[in-house]
Amino acid sequence: MITRNGDVVLIHHKNEPMVYARVEDIVADVKPGWWQITLLFLTVPRSTVTWILREGYIDGDEFTMNGEAMRLERLPRSEARKAPEPEPSPPGAEGGGEKVVSLAARRRDGR
């Protein structure tokens, strides 16, 4: 399964984008081959739903709900900002060789 907890999906209804949701949980259903996916709709007010879907449907295959076409589109995860490389502690500093990140250098670099 490509889609996993924490992913953001765009839910399409009748081939039109409808709402964004975050995947809160995916657990096996009692029926083999089916999964319970809990989605937090990113709306005001927020709401949470649990749908029972096959793995292919969770990963983007079209399915029907009440006879209407539905599809989940997993959005790419955003690139996390790279943490700066820690600078070595000056000789004789306390801490037994622990690494220190210079806040002045971070400000200078615009991070």
Number of E-state strands: 8
Approximate shape: elongated
Strand content: 35-45%
Stretches with pLDDT under 50, minimum 5 residues: none
Number of H- or I-type helical stretches: 2
Structure description:
The chain is mostly beta strands and 111 residues long. The protein is built from 2 helices and 8 strands, in the order E-E-E-E-H-E-E-E-E-H. The chain has helices at residues 55-58, 103-109; strands at residues 8-13, 16-28, 34-41, 47-54, 63-65, 68-74, 87-88, 99-100. The protein has a domain at 8-74.
Give the SSE layout.
Blueprint: E1 8-13, E2 16-28, E3 34-41, E4 47-54, H1 55-58, E5 63-65, E6 68-74, E7 87-88, E8 99-100, H2 103-109
Antiparallel strand pairs: 1-2, 1-6, 2-3, 3-4, 5-6, 7-8
Biased composition (Basic and acidic residues): 72-85
Region (Disordered): 72-111
What would the keywords be for this entry?
single chain, 111 residues, mainly beta, two-stranded antiparallel ribbon, 44% strand
In short:
With 111 residues, the chain is mostly beta strands.
